[in-house]
Amino acid sequence: MSFHPSLLTPQAKAKKMMLWFSMISMTMMFAGLTSAYVVSKARPDWLIDFALPAAFHLSTLVILVSSFTFWMAFKMLKADNAKGVTLYTLITLALAVVFSISQWVGFSSIVADGYYFTGAESTVTTSFLYVLVITHFAHLIGGIIVLLVVLVRHLKEVYQSKPLGFVLAHTFWHFLGFLWLYLFVFLFFLR
């Protein structure tokens, strides 16, 4: 279903398909990393008493709320409510920053507990955690850049006539939220 005729053009469909191929590729990368994690759990040096810090629980809640706020921004775009789009996009951006800070706090907590990600003191468990979360964080940085671009383009009123960029950003942001939720649940239950 489409709310704007420009979303039905062949170019728009091609761009949507490219985004889906990219997200599928990212999903396959994380599937490979999490598969390697599962296989590595059989190692004798695997940490079995390791627990995720509370900051990662908080970041999960924050990214889920940010998915809701960006959905609200999208809903406001469809209703032609420019102030609502600005408000909800700014809230989403702020939540993305809070998510990033909570991730930093989580890593700091892990290191403070004596678990290191690299070097002689590192373990395979924490190294895997580092790779999974940092890889997601790199994608999140891309998502934050996308949010900034969306906000600027919205303020320039680009999306009134061509909402495709917003639609693509909306899809990608929800994907990032789903991806973190998958990683969190995976790491929470498969320690």
Q: In CATH, what is the homologous superfamily?
A: Cytochrome c oxidase, subunit III, four-helix bundle
CATH architecture: Up-down Bundle
Beta percentage is under 5%
**CATH class category label:** Mainly Alpha
| Fraction of residues in helix | over 70%
- Count of extended strands: 0
Radius of gyration: 19 Å
CATH topology: Four Helix Bundle (Hemerythrin (Met), subunit A)
Note the gap between the termini. 41 Å
Low-confidence runs = none
Describe this structure in words.
By secondary structure, this protein is an all-alpha fold. It has a single domain (5-43, 53-189), classed as Four Helix Bundle (Hemerythrin (Met), subunit A). Helices cover 76% and strands 0% of the residues. The protein has helices spanning 10-40, 54-78, 82-112, 124-155, 164-189. The model has no long low-confidence stretch (mean pLDDT 90).
